[in-house]
Amino acid sequence: DAGVTQSPTHLIKTRGQHVTLRCSPISGHKSVSWYQQVLGQGPQFIFQYYEKEERGRGNFPDRFSARQFPNYSSELNVNALLLGDSALYLCASSSQGRESEKLFFGSGTQLSVL
Amino acid sequence: AQSVAQPEDQVNVAEGNPLTVKCTYSVSGNPYLFWYVQYPNRGLQFLLKYITGDNLVKGSYGFEAEFNKSQTSFHLKKPSALVSDSALYFCAVSASSGGSYIPTFGRGTSLIVHP
Hints:
A: mainly beta; seven-stranded mixed beta sheet; B: mainly beta; six-stranded mixed beta sheet; four-stranded antiparallel beta sheet; globular
């Protein structure tokens, strides 16, 4: 089975632009979470979706939004990009989104904002 | 609020020697504890987790971790380190109640195993 896939792998944008990142979870997984990982830091939680409903949101501004589709894939959107948005964006999936479940991570999208 | 502390930014160990990567946590309620490993330009990979039961948890690639409730610690260990173990290691905690069911990650510890 394929693992969690993310696209694109790398992205370069300029300040003020908009970006859409995409994630396909492992087949059968209904929960998708998004994390931001800045160099030298651990992953910071952005969103969790389960069965197309938002179940959790981290401490990120409203410029960040996400959605989950009927096939459980997900998009993360960031508007009005700032230099500080440069980071590795990780998508993770799990079967039910429960606190005891391990997460399966994709390889991430490296976003550079110039 | 729940939190994880990984007090060492970097751990250096010689190949064949035992290794320990430290993690302490703070959470309301019963903790669920995890270790993940990240290789360069890759996402995180699950190593092991503690949910309940035996305080010594065995995981992938010969790693194990010991849950200590009184010290609120969950240190990662391996009896004999390999050069290929060199990577970034993250501890994470979530909670069954009282805290957040969404895992909080530490800032990571870089493990360097010297030949």
